[in-house]
Every structure is written in C-alpha cells, then in structure tokens.
C-alpha cells in the first residue's frame, strides 16, 4: 500500500529506518531504489546531487560501512534521525542528524548536520556524542587510518566543506568547516614556499566574505591522481568594498581557480592554489 501525505508519523519513521538499513548496511541498491525518489533532492554539502549521487557515494565506501540509528522523530512529512556512520574509510566515525522529507511513500528530499565522533580523550564534556558509551576506534583508525584508494566521489566528499566555506563565507562557521575538511597542520600554499595555516586561511575566507558578500565558488571539474585531488573551480562575486586596491564599481567578476590538494588519512594535508585575480580585477574596473 502506497503511503500518502497523511501517513502516520510512526509509519514514516519505520519507512526511513528500513530505507537506511537497506542502503547503508545491506548495500542492496536494487531494493533501495524502491525507497528513494528518482527525483530525489539532495541538500548535503558532502553528497553529490540526486539519488545516483547518494548511491554512488555508498558504492565507493567500504563494504563494512555500518549505520546505527538513535533518537528518531517525525512530524508531518518530515523525519529526523540521529545516527552513527562507522567504517566509512575516514579517520573518524560520523555522527549525523539526517532530515528527510517523505512524499507519496518514498524519500524525496534530504538535509544533514555532520560531526566527527569524538573519542573519550577528545570529549571536553566527558560524555559520548552517540549512545550511552564511547565507541571503539573505527577499523580504519585502529589500523593507522589505512585509507581506501581515493575515488572521485570520495574526493568530492573530502573537499566539500572547504568549498562550502567559500560560498558566502560571512554567513558560515568557516573555522568549523575547514576543520572538517583539513588537518590542524594544514598548509595552503600561495607560492611554492609561502603558506597559510588553517586558522590564517579561515581569517582570509571570512574577510573575503565581508568584502564580497555574494562570493560563490563552484567546482567545475575534479580529478584524482594517487593521493592528490585537482579541482578546477569558478569564483564569482561583486565586491562591496575595496578589493586588492580596486574600488567597488557595482560590477562583478567571473574567474577561474586551480587547487591541487594532498590527502592524508582521509583529510586535506596541503594545497597549492592559483587564482586568476588579475582578470577578476580587470572585470571589476571595466
């Protein structure tokens, strides 16, 4: 029987848990298609768009990927569930609040809030983030964070928080997003020798967000070479204040950027980057 908009919240919760178990734990993609809309709308910064984007991400994950659910609540067409994703191929488990919209008995739209799971030693509160006790270190972390071969989908997931931080940075917790993407000793090279720390880079991003409130940074192409990720991006925006000596004219820019990241233990260790700011300044001044 097809569920409708009037479906009871308990039925919606059962539907979501069955869907998640089918996809994440059983990894039965044919069966999972029955739960996800072919027009699935994805709002996560870590998952490519659509049902195919989600399914391809899981296909690129370890077969040992495990999903556990905790608190779950439903209201109307929406279900919110607190869960743990372990054996993801990343150094830490993920604790995620997934928010799903149900339409005609299938999952139609998704949002999420993601955090790395803290160990007992890392937790300032002294309490676990999920469940009643701290989990054992993930299989990858226990093995010295033995990382799976870097795929394009995994690369997108790793760099996503950094590029999220570059989209209207004044409205984002830039430091938290960079911490999610990069190691604490991350180096961002703007020449072959000179570099900025992760904290310094966060300040640069926030300052750009003040000067260019509508700053957008779009990934146009992404390639993986061994442990490196190469991203060709497009930066756009309209400065409202002086931008590197150029007075605001009401005109915007559209320019290209190249980033070469090195990945270590599932997070960004360094980046060499080049942006065509000369063209951007010329566009603003015309």
Overview features:
globular; Nuclear Transport Factor 2, Chain: A; 286 residues; 28% helix; six-stranded mixed β-sheet; disordered N terminus; alpha+beta; five-stranded mixed β-sheet; single chain
Task: Describe this entry's structure for a reader.
By secondary structure, the protein is α+β, with helices and mostly antiparallel strands. It folds into two domains: 9-142, Roll (Nuclear Transport Factor 2, Chain: A), CATH 3.10.450.50; 152-285, Nuclear Transport Factor 2, Chain: A. The chain has eight helices and eleven strands. The protein has helices at residues 9-25, 29-32, 50-59, 139-142, 152-165, 174-181, 198-211, 277-285; strands at residues 36-42, 66-75, 78-86, 94-103, 106-116, 182-189, 195-197, 216-225, 228-237, 253-264, 267-275. It has a six-stranded mixed sheet with strand order 7-6-11-10-9-8. The chain has a five-stranded mixed sheet with strand order 1-5-4-3-2, covered by helices on one side. Helix 5 (152-165) runs antiparallel to helix 6 (174-181). The radius of gyration is 21 Å and the shape is globular.
CATH fold name of the largest domain: Nuclear Transport Factor 2, Chain: A
Overall geometry comes to globular
Please work out how many helical segments DSSP would assign: 8
In CATH, the architecture of the largest domain is Roll
Count up the domains: 2
What does the radius of gyration come to?
A: 21 Å
Helix content: 25-40%
Placed side by side, the strands forming the largest sheet appear as 7-6-11-10-9-8
Q: SSE order, as H and E?
A: HHEHEEEEHHHEEHEEEEH
